[in-house]
Amino acid sequence: MPAEKHYINCTQLKNPAAIYSNILYSFYNLRLKGSSNSLTELNERLLSNNKKVKLRILIMDEMDYLLNRNQEVLYNIF
User: Fold this and answer.
1) pLDDT one-digit tens code per residue, 43-68
2) How buried is 12 (Cβ within 10 angstroms: 0-12 exposed, 13-18 middle, 19+ buried)?
3) Are the C-beta atoms of 60 and 10 separated by less than 8 Å?
4) pTM of the predicted protein model
5) Which of 3, 29, 33, 73 is in Cβ range 3.0-4.6 Å of 55 for a Cys bridge?
């Protein structure tokens, strides 16, 4: 099974936390309001015990846009 490739240009985000909803939409074609809702849903879907796990490659261009004072966004992604 080939890997799914997803590309996000971080300079197009309204704010660093918007990366969660962009990943959620890119992976699952799902839009939720609020970055905390998107982060929760993304965590639940990625950490589920689904036996049909797909290999996904996420390319994030201009990741330095995600930098903030406490690095919370980058910490959650990695």
Assistant:
1) 999 888 777 778 899 999 999 999 98
2) exposed
3) yes
4) 0.88
5) 3
